[in-house]
Amino acid sequence: MNYLLLIYTNEQHYASMSQEALGTLNQEYGEFTKGLVQSGKFKAADRLKPTTTASTVRVRNGKTATTDGPFAETREQLGGYYLVDAKDLDEAIAIAARIPSARDGSVEVRPVWSMS
Amino acid sequence: MVDELTLPFDEIFRREAAQVLATLIRLLGDFDLAEEARQEAYAAALNQWPANGIPDRPAAWLISAGRYRIVDRLRRDQVFRSRIVPREIVGLAEPPASEVGEDFFGDDRLRLIFTCCHPALNAEARVALTLREVCGLSTPAVARAFLVAEDTMAQRLVRAKKKIREARIPYETPEPAALDQRIEGVLNVVYSVFTEGYAATAGDRLIDVELCAEAERLGALIDALLPDRAAVLGLNALMLLHDARRAARVSAQGELVLLEDQDRRLFDGAKIAAGLNLVERALSLPQRVSSYTVQAAIAALHVRAASSAETDWPQIVGLYEVLLRLEPTPVVELNHAVALSMVEGPARALDLLDSLAARGTLDRYHLLHAARGRFLSELGRCGEAREAYRAALSTASLDPERRFLTLRLEALGD
Question: Residue B168 and residue A111: Cβ atoms within 8 Å?
């Protein structure tokens, strides 16, 4: 079954990290992703630009309303995701726990509807 | 054919219910299907046993009968066929005969326990599912135990089972690497069943004997399935040693009796002996010390003392310090301070409680206010003591506790 692992981190914390610390983190992500691909459980992954670049769209009564944001009112923001194919929730949780940002942020594990 | 013909069928059903369900869930891969299969199996047994006699192994018989009927129905049922992947139907239809055998029974009971106590379920759901599916309590009985409406509890159970299915929480005993942490989670569920029984959080009764007994049975089952685990032994010891004082904790009038005033002749000697034996076994195992074992050791020192005055308070304080390192929570800090008052007097303990109270995390916890009230009155600071007891009264929810606090206030001339 596919699980979407949503990575929530504190954007400001990441923005204020030193080049060196960012380099280490990138390397950790690279190694984690490589291992995941090799295990055959990797489906997709992306890192998102910060919420300052985000727009929110709603359609009400046929009118499209676009607003800036979401504003970073919560402590952690969605910063990226992995889509993985795991045999059950325990395997998905074990993969989520190895995502480098799980150490300072949090990872939401969501089963994906199967459309077959 | 066993000589059980005199045994009423429903007694056999009750005895085998949890095992039958546990194995059917593995074979059918779904809680609800397994429950339906069990009902079908009971119906089949009522049909066949009166004529053919009770089979040698009733659980295995019920499992086979239930599985057969459900698989048969799934095969014929077009609606189900279109919803379930064919591969899964094939798997359901042909389990190796050995997998229905008793060799797998213990493993299936454990799978059921670990699934019901899975950390991905919320704490209330874990306790409710465990009581319903592992202990076999009816939904109304589980609802009564937690003083919620029956349909609220039914919804809670449905939601939990839906999450197990939709998120695919595995029906498995965890991998060795995760096992210790997961056992800790299971034990927390067992202990919350016990504490709900031993110190009910609402209502007019102080002790729900049935819930305590369920928790103790569950603890013994886990010990049988996962032997020689220090944390399991520690928890079972703790429950026995607490429960040994049950008769002395509440007076004939239903009033709360403090440990120092409890009549030690009412303590249950057999439970104490069994509990002490388990504490020793837990401590002799070469494993990390569990907080349950430390709490059991504290309870052991209490029940072994001839009176409150003769209790080995310095050792109890020492054990609370160990516990604080394992489990640094405000409630443990409170208990440590109370024990310390017996060694160093109320002034030092009050200092600790004042700094604890200043952090505000236990504002709604009546026992913090009650302990402050007691130390303040021992120090002759009656005005402040009254204030503390009033704060305790405003946060206590159990009637006997409220009556106890009212008495204290009256004694202070309120």
Answer: yes
d(CA A10, CA A25): 14
The C-alpha of B121 sits at a distance from chain A's nearest C-alpha, in angstroms, of: 12
Give the SS3 label for residue A52: helix
Rounded Cα–Cα distance for residues B74 and B83 (Å): 10
Residues of A in contact with B172 (CB under 8 A): 88, 90
Q: Extract the tokens encoding B149.
A: 């409406």
What is this model's ipTM? 0.85
Question: How far does A3 lie from chain B, in Å, by closest CA?
Answer: 9
- CA dist list (Å): B206 to A110, B198, B247, B389, B397: 41, 7, 11, 20, 11
SS3 A106: strand
Got the DSSP string for B103-144? Answer: GGHHHHHHHHHHHHT-TTS-HHHHHHHIIIIIS---HHHHHH
B80: helix, strand or coil: helix
Per-residue pLDDT tens digits for B202-259: 555 666 788 899 999 999 999 999 999 999 999 999 999 999 998 898 888 877 788 8
Tokens for B336, please give them.
């440590």
B83 CB within 8 Å of a chain A CB: no
Other beta carbons less than 10 A from residue B394's beta carbon: 12
d(CA B250, CA A95): 50
- Residue with structure tokens 């390397």? A27
Indicate the pTM of the whole model. 0.84
Q: Which two structure tokens, joined as six digits, stand for B135? A: 């202990």
Q: pLDDT per residue over A24-78, tens digit each? A: 999 999 999 999 999 999 999 999 998 888 999 999 999 999 988 887 567 899 9
Nearest CA in chain B to A109: B167
Dihedral sign, Cα of residue B208, residue B209, residue B214, residue B220: positive
A57 Cβ contact partners less than 8 Å away, ≥ 6 residues apart:
A64, A65, A66
Find, among B121, B21, B28, the residue nearest to B68 by Cα: B28
For residues B272 and B246, is the Cβ–Cβ distance under 8 A? no
| Among B208, B363, B236, CA closest to B293 | B236
